[in-house]
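Please, structure for the following, as tokens.
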Amino acid sequence: MNRSIKTILLLGVVGVVVGCYAAGDLKGNPAVIPVPRATEGKAWLADRYTQLKTELGTRDLSKVELLFVGDSITQGWLKEGAESWTASFSGAPNHALNLGVAGDRTEHVLYRLLSAADGGMGNLDDPRLKPKIIVLMIGTNNLFNNPPDEIIEGVVAVCDRLRELEPQARIILCSILPTKDDERNRTLVVPVNRQLQTLAKVQWLDLYPTFVNESGLQRSDFFRDGLHPNADGYRVWRDLLMHSIIRGNS
């Protein structure tokens, strides 16, 4: 398929979404409307989509016990967090699957969770995929586009969709990590996390207090660029997550 046809198809999908929005069939919050991402000029994004398609098409998905869903911070388990990922998640008994995609906002994850039959990417379409636990961290990229109420609704929409698709799974919802921008933390991250921790039917994992210092500022020794964790940050997250998994199993 050449680029022009791909562009036309993508615009067609977006047009359907926008049309439904204008007609009042979808909520006015853009964070809850499934939206595809254009890969034109973004070879890294096209490569990641190809990786996911290959892994979903070749792995024995029936063995997956632990599923990670999110953005670049989740995808980062495979790079900066690779040591912790390999030691604790990728092999038996978890056989973890990482569906993190850099740059994703809640609306993009919703599009990836939309079935292929309905025009989405269908990341969870395969009936063999029945994880026991889903680890979700999403909303960081929405901080640059949406107010707190929209971000909260977007995260809730992702949780609801995951619960709909994988009712057997326990969802561990991880808090949004602190950024290096203290004002953004105070006006967006903290209020969003405060509301998300009250959600029912999910297990809340509050990472925020561990990733800030005594003054409430981001611990730079846990981050590589003020937004994404470094190897030490992933080790801390791994330890907290493992404790949360064990606690939930008891």
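Strands lie at 66-70, 97-100, 133-137, 170-174, 203-205. The chain has one domain: 43-249.
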